[in-house]
Structure formats: C-alpha cells, structure tokens
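User: I'm writing a tutorial on reading structure tokens. Could you give me a worked example: one chain, its sequence, then its tokens, then a sentence or two explaining what the tokens reveal?
Assistant: Sure. Here is the example chain.
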Amino acid sequence: MGTKRIRVWAGALAALGLLGTAACGQRERAPAAAPVAPPTIARADLFGEPVRFGAQLSPRGDRVAFLAPRDGVTNLWVMSVGAMDEARAVTDDRARGVRAFAWAADGATLLYQLDDQGDGNLRLYAVDAGGASEARALTPARARAEIVGLSAADPGGVVVSLNQRDAAWPDLFRVELATGAQTRLVRNANTAAVRGFSRFVLDRQNRLRLGLKTLADGSVEVFARDANARWYSLLTIPFEDALSSQPLAFDADGRSFLMLDSTGRDRAALVRVDAYTAAKSVLGESARADVSDVWLDPATNAPEAFAANYLRPEWRALDQDAQADIDYLDRQLTGDFSVVSRSADDARWIVVEEGPTVAARSYLYDRGDRANRRLSLLFRHRPGLDQAPLQAMTPVEIEARDGLTLVSYLTLPIGADANGDARPESAVPLVIVPHGGPWSRDAYGFNAMHQWLANRGYAVMSVNFRGSTGFGEAFLNAGNREWGGRMQEDLLDAVQWAVTNGIAQADRVAIVGQGFGGYAALAGLTFSPDQFRCAASYGAPANLSALVEGSPAASRDAWYLRVGDVRSAEGRSALRARSPLQRAGQITRPLLLAMGARDSAATRGEFDVIAQSLRARRVGLTSLVFPEEGAELVRPQNRLAYYAVLEHFLSDCLGGRAEPAGASLEGAEMIAYDGATSVPGLSAFARRAVVPTPPPAEEALPVADDGAGGPVATSAAPADPVAREITPRSPSPPQPPEQ
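And here are its predicted structure tokens:
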C-alpha cells in the first residue's frame, strides 16, 4: 500500500503426518495421509493476455478506454462511465495487437501504436473513440513514431518524433489528427560538428522548449529554445547521473520545469528548474532510494506527491489534499497502488492496485466531492487468479562480497514455510531470475514468474544487482563495464546467501532470464559452470562487441562507458572475455536457448554457434526460434508455448512438477531445433538444425537465410567452434533508459 509498513506474510502450512507407533498398552494409529499437492495455477492464467488492462480516462472523465482481447488479439475498447457493462471494441487488429495508446486532447480520438513486424518500428494510428470511423495511420510504415506532446491548447494535433528520414536521429513533427498532414518542427541533423538531439521536451502549450544531446563523454547537455527558436545551453547532466536524471514536465507558466535529478547527490530527487537560469530547488527526496513516481495536477502540472521505492513504494504528499487521497486509498486497498490516469478536471482517477498475492485490479476513484470520495472496481486484470494459491513475496537485503547491499525479492513454494519466518523448513530447489535491461530493477508486487515457479515447487529470487536503477547514482554506476563481472558476482553472492540460509539446495539451482537476464543465464553456465544445474535464456546478446557496435548512434558513447569500448584493443579484449559466445565450449550443463528471429540484439548467428557447440559435445540442449517474434514474445500463443517448454525443462532439471503442455502449444509459430522429444507435442515443431560453417580467423559467420533467419551451412562445425564478433542484423538493439 502507499504508506503502510512492510509485512511478511506466512506461507501455507505444510501437511504434517501423525507418527504411528505400536507399544504395549497403546492402540496402533492409522498411517499418515499422503501430502496433498497444492492446486496448480494454470500457465494461461499467468501468462496469457489479461482479460482487461491498461485503463485510461478520457480528458472529460466520461469514458474509459482499455485493452482486451478481441478474437484472441489485444485490441482497444471503450466504455462509458455511466454504462460500464457496455464496452465495445474500436480497433480490430488481427496480428500482434495494440500495446500502447493515449487519448488525444480533443477527447474524441484515441491514438495507438502497432509494431506490425516485431522490429520495434511503432506506427501511430488514430481511431474515433465512438467507433464512427475506421482506424487511420498517421505515420508511415517502417518508421518509429513516438508521441512527444498532447495539449488542450492544440486539440486537433499531436507532436511526434519520427525517424523516417534518419533511423538514428528522429525529426520532430506536428501531425493533424483528422488528415494526417505533417508539419516538421525540427530537422534533427547530426554532423561531425553538431550532435543531434536524443530527446525533445514540450511545454503545456505543445511548444518545443528543451532538447537533450548525449555528448562524447557520456554526459547529457540540456538545451533550451527561446521564443525566436534559438537554442542555448541550459545545463549539463554528468555521465554518472545521466540514467537517473531527466526533465519531466513544464509548469503552467512555462518559466520552470520539473526534473528528476541526482546531480550533486546520490539519490535522484524531485526538483524544480528555472528554464532561463537553471537554478534548482529541491521539492522532494528520499534518503534510501531515487524518486520513482510523481503525481502532477492535470491542470497545472503542479507536483502533489512523490514516491520512492527501496524495498517497496512509499508515497509522500506535498500538500494536504494529496495526503487525504493517500490516506483514503491506503484504507481502502490491500495492495500497493498507483495512479495511472486522471481526468482534466481531476474529479476522477483510475487507480491500479496490486501486490504479491493480489493480481492487478483497476478502480475508478471519484474524488470530486472530497467529503464523499468513492472507489469502484472497474475490472480485475486476471480474474482467473482470484482463488489461486498465490504466495507471499519477501524483500531481503543481501550483502555482496564487496559490501554493497543487494535489494532482492524471495518467494517460497506453497507449504515450505510452516512457521511463517520467510524461510523454508528445509532447503528447496531455487530459480534465480535476473531482470532485463540491465538499467531497470525488480520490485515488490505481483510477479507472474515468481508465482508460477513457486507453484511448481521452487524458491524464486530476483536480485537487484549493481547497475540496477532506483538505488542511487553510486549503485547504478558500480555496474559500469561489469557485464559478466561484478554484476554476475552479485547473482552468485545471492545464490550463496540462499544456500547459507537454508533456502536453496546447493546442487539444485537454475538461472532463467530474458534480454540481459538471458545474457546472465548464459554467463552463469559459461563463467561458473558448476554453480547452476541448468539455465534458460531467451533473447540473450551473446557477443558484447557486436551489441555495443550495433547500439543506437544517439547513445553509443554512453554504451562505450557502460558496457565496453570497442574502439580500443583493450576494450575489445575485455568484451570478448565476457561474451558467452567466446566461451560456449565451457557450457557443460543443460541449456534452453530461445530467441525471436526479428530480435536485433540476439542474432541468429550467435544462437547457432552456441547451439552447435553443445550439440557437438552432446550437452543437453533445447533450442527454439520464434520466426515472427523479436526481443519479446508478444503473441500470447508463442508466449504460452515458450513457458510450457521452460516448465518441462525445469522439471527435468530441478524435479518440480509440470502442467502438461496440452493446449499451450496450439497456434504457436516456433521451430524446435533441439530437445523436441522432451516435451509432449513439441516434436510437431521439430526441424533439423542447419550447421553453421565455422568462420575463418578473420571472417564473419555466414548469414544467408535458411527460411527462419538462420545461416545456410556448407560444412560441419568443429566440436568447439571459436566465434568472432558477429554484426547484429539491424542497428537498433534495446537501449538504456532515455536520457
């Protein structure tokens, strides 16, 4: 909850058998009953599409738009506040589904993005909220559009960044909602003499006011734009603060703006910055964590409250009205809450509640009459979990070998903690789930991975290793150039903590991840092959040199500093030493290796080299490719299929129970190159792997397409092919959080 103290919830009691003894003068007792297996939580309830989610109020507060499946694909729906049981779909996408949307300032139009090809190029569409007309594209295909500004002062338009001219340096346009007519506001030129902008900030009138540039030393220079469209340097954010400092919004008078800022302090504070002099005043801060969320008055952008998240979110009010809202929501709700949408007059909010044992729920909060506040349930996101045996999550602080504190989250299997001390009565198998990014964090709350794995009989732990965001500048920068180094050691230290504290069985630990988490899983098997019994990796960048070389041009200098510098021989050597691709021959434990063929960071060439190394040495391998997916599994059929395979893989490795694959494989588009016989039904997706040609000493791997994004082979690879750097197939891998 917003301000309540952290609780440790007791797990369910383990079944206890009665001792039966035959002794003189005593009656023989009946044999103990066999333990009853806990109810199985269906994978579909955890990883299928939510029934409804993503609610947003119209500016007038009279309608709610939300996302929900339509014929199995997520689409945009609208309902009236006065008739919430009469929702209707206003889009009819049949492919990858709508993932993000916003109300236009006119209150009649909804704007949404589609990633039709799974390559990150988001196309912007508009549709009438009343369903009176068909959806229309506002931006061209094969270009990435991002909404930068919506304003009541310009209800007929939207300001977007669009990289149609230059994929690396998007221009800024105003787009007319009715016709799609574009007016270019800024041509974002990048030359040897003048750097381009990586981000733009508008004021409440949709006027361009700030532009941010990432400099060669990794710092971010913030430029202001005067009334005559002239730019001038306002302030510089040092490299060390670049990921934790950013402008938020302009105040109503346009003379100042709000900013999260860690410059000159360790933890990011909420500050107000004079837009002409750069003078700063601190409005709110926490001694333990960065400010992570802010309430802004929708009419003025005046800050009302802020949150900081160390072990779990804590809200602090900046005025009495906000304190009354926090107190009311705290009394009404069991889980933590977040405010996700507010009407223009601030009379109605949408509030989302969730917690480890509370799957997300959306509420309509009527607060126009302060004396008669009212909270009404809009919908449960996943009603199938209402009666599920969800397990408590316990925040823990783990000391790393060099003294850093690692905030982590532990979930135990049902029945493991009989006395409620957040420790199992006896050690259990453990799954470590490192987060992606890596410039993000794990947090307290409902976590589908935790609930799924705990339900199958495993302890689950998420570790905020160094380099995670939210814990201050020093902790964040302790992760610089530590991929596969001290970041990986943090995960090993967490495993050792779990073993020492009787939580984990030392010989039954697995590591599972996606993106950077997938890299950490591969690194676990290559750099510490005896630590983990098995690993599962989806979308892992296995070649750090290629990852850095393919990073976005606008932030590549920061990548040199945060991951490694490919411009020097020493830097390339360090990156090779920490690239799982170069150490594939050291993998001796079972691996589930999966990727989306449209992922630009995890290339098919890297995938094939690692897979062939394991095949040649007969190391346990399950390998999957999803031809229509990218860095994330967007289509629910593919997502459910992957988790079905992962569940059986972990069951074989750690001994937990597994829900039958059954219908989870139906409708999936995937290719199983290895391990198809390990999961009932997976053999239908089997295809013989094409063996990649080993690269000569100074040549790249072949990249001719075999129909699933893989290279065409001409000869068998050696038992342990030595790979050199492989260039990503497209230059836009996941990037650090926007500066």
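What the tokens reveal: The radius of gyration is 26 Å. Residues 1-30, 695-739 have pLDDT under 50 and may be disordered.
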